Amino acid sequence: MAIKFEQVSFQYPSFDGKNFSALENINLEISDKGEFITLIGETGSGKSTLVQHMNALLRPNTGSVTIYGIKIEKNTNKNKKIKLNPLRQKVGLVFQFPEYQLFEETVLKDIIFGPKNFGVKEDEAIKRAKEVIKHVGLTEDYLGRSPFNLSGGEQKRVSIAGILAMEPDILVLDEPTSGLDPKGRDALLELFTNIHKKLNKTIIIITHDMNTVYKYASRVVVMHDAKLVYDGLPNMLFMDENIEKWNLDLPDIIGITKQLEAKLDITFTKKPHNVNELFELMKGVL
Amino acid sequence: MKNIIVGQYIPGKSFLYKMDPRSKILALFILMVSAFVFKDITHIIYMLLGVLVILKIGGIPIMRIARGLRPIMILLLFTFTFQVLFIKTGPVILDTVLTLTTINIGIMILAIVVWYYTRRYIKSKFFYMVLVIVGILTMLSLFTPGTVISSSNLTIYEDGLLGASFIMVRLIIIVTLSTILTLTTKPTDLNLGLERILKPLNLVKINSEEIALIISIALRYIPTLLDEANKIMLAQASRGVDFTEGKFKDKVMQIISLLVPMFIISFKRSDDLANAMEARSFVPGNKRTRIHILSWQSRDTLVIVFCLLVLTATVVVRVYL
């Protein structure tokens, strides 16, 4: 297992002495081979806190997170012998609103900033930059431009390219598609699927879009009130009765199917994944 | 980063909290002036006692004030040392020769090394340091075996000691008084009070409302920007920036990677804020109504009268005694 959470709890300190509990007793295992995980849950349920534990940006208050064999506990940073930085190359984390991390004069310099920090040679980093900029749906012309003259969506893609150029084994993205138009969103999700399939890397995405969960994910993790309440297949999740309680909703296609079942008073043999499958099912029934 | 608290306000119930911020600012000003009028050490010690009485009545723990004094401790020590060494009038209190010899220089270095490695285990680091310095000086003047390397005279005069103590006490009074103000007044109230007090400046075309607005916006955005800075640090840490270590060249890069986004965010935020204020029909210079209206009560008048009496008394003392 690449990442292993063992009874992890985490509280944010606050001024009045009461602590705000963001994670409570989380147990989770993530492999770095071929998983496509979506992490869902209402705002404030601890999703972002959870992913910040995955590359040792935060340390648990109790319990431990083991990342590539390095055990992270409450007092880990006091031990100078443990280098946390290499972990951050292996687990690439793209923050929500990554456009704020841009700071260099050109897009190229910003993309190679990450790889160079991890000791990649400059020409190798430039080679990677030329490759990843195409992956995120931009052209090489962008490399010479200033990141601050780009639109919000383009900035977001550049910052994702900056993480991709680090060539992490596990790619974690905190709401990567928020603020993007539908076309850009689909392109980005296709990109992640490609990375997932071709390079057999693990992708973890925080999202609020159930369609993304249903269409792309091989595994779904649900957070609710700082607790991990579901970990399993997306298909099974949407059969679960608790999804109302967890403030989740159904993907469009399942919503339609359920409506149809209720209106026509029939039961389909399985849940469809897209319109075509639904059409086939309808033909079978009628 | 998270532990920075802006403004030192701690809620309480004493009369200091019930006072109008305007009267508190005025009183602070008057008392500071009287602290500067005094010229005699005994008088200023009476004033220090008076300040302690205010603390007692106001229910402010002395420890809070001591904590407020900590940042200027170095400054106090510095002024004290120089005053003691450079005022050379009055009777001599101490006259000794500091001698540096081959043996006691070794002991001195040893003491410094021991201090350097043990200071983290001692709770009051400051007093530990003072103790070590005094110890070394005593040794240099009394314990002088071995070959003499160099020696110098150390003479302390009474006026020097008195003058130094006088300046220390005056600084402590001033800092304590201003700490009382910030401890018992909410930043917003302080701001409002300042605005009202600066109002006469409108006559010379200085807009006190705008100054107050600038201060309140700045105060309001400190926590927000700290939060943003924290987020950016985490994001850059994910890209391999290690803020805890690195050579000087790396450090510069680390700071740039934090500062550039911070500037951009601040500009963006100020733009957004300006738009939001305009959307709610804020026009600079227009007359505005307020939610909080300050009310000047008899206790405020009383305090101001009392402070003025103190000031008069100090002037009388200065002139006639």
Relevant terms:
heterodimer, A: 286 residues, alpha/beta, Rossmann fold, 2 domains, six-stranded mixed beta sheet, 10 helices, 36% helix, B: 321 residues, mainly alpha, two-stranded antiparallel ribbon, 12 helices, 69% helix, flat
**Briefly, what CATH class of the largest domain in chain A?**
Alpha Beta
Helix-strand sequence of chain A = EEEHEEHEHHHEHEHEEHHH
Oligomer state equals heterodimer
Mean pLDDT of chain B: 84
Largest sheet of chain A: 6 strands, mixed
Derived structural class of chain B: mainly alpha
Strand order of the largest sheet of chain A: 6-7-8-3-9-10
Give helix % range of chain A: 25-40%
Commentary on this structure:
The complex is a heterodimer of chains A (286) and B (321). By secondary structure, chain A is an alpha/beta fold. Chain A contains ten helices and ten strands. Chain A folds into two domains: 3-249, P-loop containing nucleotide triphosphate hydrolases (Rossmann fold), CATH 3.40.50; 250-286, no CATH class. A six-stranded mixed sheet of chain A has the order 6-7-8-3-9-10, with helices on both faces. A four-stranded antiparallel sheet of chain A has the order 2-1-4-5, with helices on one face. In chain A, strand 1 and strand 2 form a beta hairpin. The model of chain A has no long low-confidence stretch (mean pLDDT 87). Residues 1-6 of chain B have low confidence and may be disordered. Chain B has helices spanning 15-18, 21-37, 41-58, 62-69, 73-86, 102-118, 125-142, 158-184, 187-197, 208-238, 248-279, 298-320; strands spanning 92-101, 148-157. In chain B, strands 1-2 form a two-stranded antiparallel ribbon. Helix content of chain B is 69%, strand content 6%. In chain B, helix 9 (187-197) packs antiparallel against helix 10 (208-238). At the A-B interface, helix 2, strand 6 and helix 3 of A face helix 10 and helix 11 of B.
